[in-house]
Amino acid sequence: MPIFTKTGDNGRTSLLSGERVDKADCRLEAYGSVDELNSILGALIAALSQNHTALINELHVIQTDLFDLSAWLAATPGSQVLERLRTFSDDRVVYLEEHIDPMWAQLPRLNRFIQPGGHAAAAWAHVARAVARRVERQTVRLMATGEYAALSAVDHTILRYLNRLSDYLFVLARFCNFIHDIDDIKLGEASA
User: Which residue of 3, 24, 54, 153 lies most exposed, with the fewest beta carbons within 10 A?
Assistant: First the structure.
């Protein structure tokens, strides 16, 4: 099968549930940003040294979660394809929370805002955090549209997951600096 199908040459594409939609559809915006976020996590993983296997494995689990989340966003509510998707449940939110707390406990207390930067892995985590916030905004807009207006339990879990993911990524950015013995850049401390 060739990589190119030419079916999107006219500015339309198919959703996972089969409907043809405009490439500017809010669903494509949302799950396209999830794909961007997943790619950034790949860059973050590449920036980590291989001796941080537990952290790398954790990020791989989150990447899998993002694939699942994309599938939910790429299907029309009520579609039969949803029955075949892995359930996106509260355990995914709990997974993030269980990994935030141990990192947070090791970090120095924050008393000022910090700027993105430091170690390359921390910088990528900050980029991922910003994109996760965009995904969250796009998903809220998507779920406010007609066919998504009645939020299901899965939709609520997706929104909670995205909110918690940005928290996780903020803590992870600080943790990446911490494990590489680099101080966070506090607002106002950057050299001119």
Answer: 3
Mean pLDDT throughout 23-51? 89
Which of the residue ranges 68-82, 83-97, 141-155 would you say has the lowest mean pLDDT?
141-155
Q: What is the CATH code for 21-183?
A: 1.20.1200.10
Q: Is the pLDDT of residue 112 over 90?
A: no
Cα angle, residue 170 at apex, residues 167 and 171 outer, rounded to 5°: 90
The contacts of residue 163 (CB under 8 Å, 6+ apart) are 136
| Structural domain boundaries in the chain | 21-183
